[in-house]
Design brief:
The chain is built from 5 helices and 9 strands. It is α/β, with parallel strands linked by helices.
Length: about 220
C-alpha cells in the first residue's frame, strides 16, 4: 500500500480542466502515493462533503491530500512542502497559497466573521503560518482519523468547517507559505452555496465570535 492517498474529485475525468490538473500532478514524484480519481459525474447531487468523507475512509489511516479539479500546482516539490509544513507547524490541516485569477494576489487563507463571511488573508508583509481556514484547492491532512467531515456541505465550505472544528479541538491549521496553487483554488461567489453558509453559521456562530480568536496563533485575524 502506498504511503499517501491523493484524492482528486471531478465531475468529468475527460474534461480538459481535469486533464490539466492530472498533467501537473504527474510531474511530481508520486512513487509513494496513490492517486485516487473519483469521477462522480454531472448528475450526482449528493453533498460534496459526503463523497469526500467516503473517499477518505479508503485511506485507511494514511495521510490524505485533497485536490480540486481545475487546480494547478506547478511546483514539482509541492508534496514535500506540504509535509514539511505539517511537521514544522504541528498542524492537523495544511493548505497552500492560492493565486487569485482576477488580481493575481496571493491568498493565504481566510479569516471569518460570526456571520460566516469569508475574508481573504492576503500578502501584507506579515509572516503568515497559521490561519483560521485554508483555501480549499489543495489540502493536506496528515492524520485523517482525527478529522470529522460534516456530510451536509454541498460545496467547498466543508474545508472551512474542518478548519474551525480543528481549532475548537485544540488543533491548528496552517498554510505552506512557499507553495502556490493556480486555477480553481479559492472560494468564489459562484462556488458558495447559501445553504452551506447558513449551515456553517448555525454551527459555529458563537464559537467564532467568542472563542476562535482567543487562539494566540490567529488572534491578529479577528475582525469586528
Amino acid at each position: 500500500m502506498k504511503e499517501i492517498l491523493i484524492i482528486l474529485n471531478t465531475f468529468d475525468l475527460n474534461h480538459p480542466v481535469t486533464r490539466k490538473t492530472i498533467e501537473y500532478l504527474k510531474k511530481t514524484d508520486l512513487f509513494k502515493t496513490e492517486l485516487f480519481i473519483a469521477d462522480s459525474g454531472y448528475e450526482n447531487d449528493e453533498p460534496y462533503s459526503k463523497r469526500i468523507k467516503a473517499y477518505m475512509a479508503y485511506a485507511d489511516g494514511r495521510p490524505v491530500v485533497i485536490i480540486k479539479s481545475g487546480v494547478l500546482v506547478k511546483d514539482n516539490d509541492w508534496l514535500e512542502k506540504l509535509i514539511n509544513t505539517s511537521e514544522a507547524s504541528g498542524a492537523s490541516i495544511v493548505g497552500c497559497v492560492g493565486i487569485s485569477e482576477n488580481t493575481r494576489n496571493k491568498i493565504y487563507g481566510y479569516t471569518l466573521t460570526d456571520k460566516a463571511a469569508h475574508i481573504t488573508i492576503e500578502d501584507d508583509g506579515r509572516d503568515v503560518l497559521y490561519v483560521p481556514a485554508v483555501t480549499p484547492g489543495l489540502v493536506y491532512i496528515p492524520r485523517p482519523e482525527e478529522i470529522e467531515i460534516d456530510e451536509h456541505f454541498y460545496g467547498n465550505m466543508y474545508v472551512t468547517d474542518i478548519c474551525v472544528r480543528a481549532w475548537s479541538q485544540g488543533k491548528k491549521t496552517a498554510v505552506s507559505q512557499a507553495l502556490l496553487s493556480y486555477g480553481d483554488s479559492l472560494l468564489s461567489e459562484s462556488s458558495l452555496n447559501e445553504a452551506d453558509i447558513e449551515h456553517l453559521r448555525n454551527k459555529w456562530c458563537y464559537y467564532i465570535k467568542a472563542r476562535l480568536f482567543l487562539n494566540e496563533d490567529i488572534k491578529t485575524f479577528c475582525v469586528s
